[in-house]
Amino acid sequence: MAPRRVLNRERPEVTPLNDQASTETDQMDVTAPPMETLLKRFQYFKPPTLKGFDNAIGCESWLEDIDQLFDSLDYSDDRRIRLVIHQLQGIAKRWWISMKNALENRGTVVTWSLFKTEFYKRFFPVSYRKDKGAEFANLKQGNLNIEDYVSKFDSFLNFAPPFSENEKAKADQFINGLNPDIFTLVNIGRPDNFSDAMN
Predict the structure, then answer these.
(1) How far is residue 1's CA from residue 82's CA, in Å, rounded to a whole number?
(2) What's the pTM?
(3) From CA 122, how far away is CA 133, in angstroms rounded?
(4) pLDDT score, position 111
């Protein structure tokens, strides 16, 4: 597996916009900043762009970088979906406009998780997804420290939809990959979701 790409550019420190920091509740908040203000603030952090011609590893790096920025800014699903279009160019932009319209016409609520699922289907060859899925199924902590194991596990989830959509299965897969000493400590609490297992 290729090493994860490290960003060469530094991003300015992320600070909330007054008392209007992005939260899950601000979707309905009439005091939320208008789109122009939101876009200007987002562009300040120099988010990466994607044309769609990149290889699978380049596409994966882009998604990891944009997802990391959205997480740092604590943006809601609604904001992520509204802003991501500005970071897509060329065939990537045409693909997403078409996909979003098709999903909305079917009455599907477009979430960030759904965007990522559709993104992986479009920009990752089936063989690549199968290889990643197999790596995920056999993933063990081994010589990795716990932070690296969590990071690797999390990155593979995109290639294993049955696990990513089922909290109990995800927790079980995560716990079963831990080294025996840590496995015993974590399993005592019998966590039934991924978040509890990591904690």
Answers:
(1) 32
(2) 0.60
(3) 16
(4) 93
